[in-house]
Design goal:
It is a single chain. This protein starts with 9 loop residues before the first helix and ends in a 26-residue tail after the last helix. It is elongated and about 90 Å long. It is mostly helical. It has 3 helices and 2 strands; from the N terminus they run H-E-E-H-H. The protein has a domain of about 100 residues: 3-Layer(aba) Sandwich (His-Me finger endonuclease fold). The structure holds zinc ion (2 copies). The site of one zinc ion has 8 residues, from strand 2 and helix 2.
Length: about 150
């Protein structure tokens, strides 16, 4: 039995997921591959090791949160597992909101989407809207008779 985790618009979710997937495919050939070559396949935060099929759970985090900033020496990259990556970004969001305070994070909400770098990129890019022309211009234009007509 499965229940929806969040009442988000499924169409938008599907769209995001599709774009994320495409985006990921491109990026996979880029810095992630490089990062995986540079670093041991271990989460820099929790220390779990990833190999084989599970390697895809290991993601590249940008230390300065600028995903355009990809120095080839890997100085801006950090390999984080999905959970720690999610956590890292939430922590940062909270830190931004409550600057100077200790942000409490007792509970980490389970989410379908994690605010990964790719998602940030997506949200910054306005969608090119697909225009749907169904050509329904066949509405009968019946005017009521003018009562003041002599
Ligand atoms: Zn981790
Ligand atoms: Zn990140």
């Amino acid at each position: 039995m499965k229940k929806p985790a969040a009442p988000a618009d499924p169409a938008r979710q599907a769209q995001l997921r599709r774009e994320l997937e495409r985006d990921r495919a491109v990026r996979l050939k880029g810095y992630r591959e490089q990062a995986l070559k540079l670093f041991p396949h271990v989460c820099a935060s929790c220390g779990r090791a990833f190999e084989g099929d599970r390697l895809r759970e290991l993601t590249v985090h940008h230390r300065d949160h600028d995903y355009h900033h990809n120095p080839p020496d890997g100085s801006n990259w950090e390999l984080l597992c999905l959970y720690c990556h999610d956590h890292e970004h939430e922590k940062n969001l909270l830190a931004g909101h409550f600057e100077g305070r200790t942000a409490k994070q007792d509970e980490l909400k389970p989410s379908i989407f994690s605010p990964f770098d790719q998602l940030d990129a997506l949200l910054k890019q306005p969608d090119t809207e697909a225009r749907t022309d169904d050509g329904s211009a066949a509405s009968p234009d019946t005017k009521p008779p003018d009562p003041r007509a002599s």
